Amino acid sequence: MSIIDFHTHPIFFEEGAEPAETRRQLRRARSLGITRMVALGDVLRYGRLPDAEQTRILNDDVAKVVRRSKRFYVGFCGLNPLLGEAEVWREVERCFETVGGFHGLKLEISCNARDAAMKPVMEAAARYEVPVLQHSWSQTNIRERAFHSDPEDTCELARRWPEVKVVMAHLTGCGVRGIRAARGLENLYIDTSGAAPEAGLVECAVDELGAHRVLYGSDLPIRDLPTAMGRITGASISAAAKRRILHDNAVNLLPPAV
């Protein structure tokens, strides 16, 4: 089966930036049946509040990886919404219209998904017709909701912008609570990245939301690829559901490989 990984960080704390490292990553992924990866930035290299120049550096690094294999990598433009509307638009337009290779937006922990600063981000996603991948994690124990996004916060973002496809990252970090919060939001997807696999969680997501709203994501290199894939291949769901999660749903959100 051809597999698309919707959540990877090819460069992580500056490791993976060299062409030889990209080639090794490609060989490893392809040996496991992965044919495309969404390339997200080195999101926390500069902490949770990168400035405008740092944001450009992170996105330029993603662009370099994408250029090495345009058929394999799809870039998502990382943003710090707290830099303001003008800077958000400047970076989005630069990534999509000048640099190229970007087909989505990525939000980390600069601000909560409910923050008013998210407005230009979502307007840009609507204009360019691209998905938004929002870092999400249950704040029951972390308790940093001022800038982290609880599952309910990401769901509210999707509810306010029904014309935008929103991906709630980290199924394991959001848990059953996140799955249930996402019910009835057809523009919201959950990717399966996060902590170690948890028995029954993928099955719960398929039962509650339908297989068409679940996306395979590994969080490479933080997580081991075979383990991340195993939570799907080993789940007690139909072969058709596995195919949707591992491939078909991502195809519907990404441009064709050319």
Automatic annotation (TrEMBL):
Keywords: Lyase. InterPro entries: ACMSD, Amidohydro-rel, Metal_Hydrolase. Pfam families: Amidohydro_2. It comes from the Bacteria. Residues 4-254 form the Amidohydrolase-related domain. This is Amidohydrolase family protein. It comes from Actomonas aquatica. The lineage of its organism: Bacteria, Pseudomonadati, Verrucomicrobiota, Opitutia, Opitutales.
